[in-house]
Amino acid sequence: MEGSGKRDDIAANQMHNQGLNNKKFPFYVLSEESWQEGVAHEEAPQKIVKETNRKIYRHERQNRFLLKKSEDYDVFDDVFDTPTIMVINSMINDGLIQSFKSHFASGKESKIYFAIRNDGTPVAVKIYLTVSAEFRKRLRYIAGDPAFNSIKKGSRSMMAAWAKKEFRNLRAAYQNKVRVPAPIDVRKNVLVMEFIGDKEGNAYPTLVNSDVSAEDYKQIIDQVTRLYQRAELVHADLSEYNIMKSDDGIMLFDFGSAVNINHPNAKQFLLRDILNINRFFEKRGVTVLDAGLIIDKIRSEKI
Fold first, then answer.
1. CATH of residue 245
2. pTM across the whole model
3. Mean per-residue pLDDT for 48-68?
4. What's the distance, Cα to Cα, between the start and end of the chain in Å?
5. Which of the listed residues 39, 73, 107 is the one where a domain comes to its end?
6. Which of 89, 163, 174, 227 has its CA 20 to 30 A from that of 249?
């Protein structure tokens, strides 16, 4: 584990130094053919090839993407191990992402970055930490899910399966008009989705950092009901920390733990979600409904 951290630090320093020396280019593109040959190609006319430490990379590598501002380099931290960089490079080659701008959110098992697509559209890129021990606590959320049956617990493959699980959950919710970020793509441990915030990369605040009202409470219950009835999902990790308050209203996010309503613990997870929301709004002085009555309504109401 210690050796992996050193490799990542060296990689970050190399990318940073390359960026400062070549500010005129927005980023590099590394083709699949070039990857095998150890040669990098820029989008700019001039080609730049730089030797990297062969003990670390085993062959020459060039910077995948070059950012325009020096402050942008703080995104190259411990999450950007070699396999993750390869995934991001493939997204750049495919035109999915042009450049990373900043890191704006962290969790126990992932970090989220503000990035720009080729057309200028802002997106959020969620990268699951492949060394996170938090996934050991997530086993109850994947019990009975065939996607995880043959995967060794705690492996990189498990992180990739978890990212795909969140993508599927987001897609099901979005397609059923639940207010969630639109999912765009997922590759291994990297998930790309709609960015909920302004064009400068400022995400809208979560409930814990917002003034809240009875209308906010009602919107959340309505969204949880729609999620259950239409998408047939229970969020299973809902709290004031993964609900945003945007200009257009309440927005739910962080769907990695969400389970199907037929999951053996679905009712227990739903009750916990409601109790979390009630606790928060009561603390903020908003009148809440009885949790049992809310759950009966959610499970029986047809919308």
1. 1.10.510.10
2. 0.72
3. 40
4. 50
5. 73
6. 163
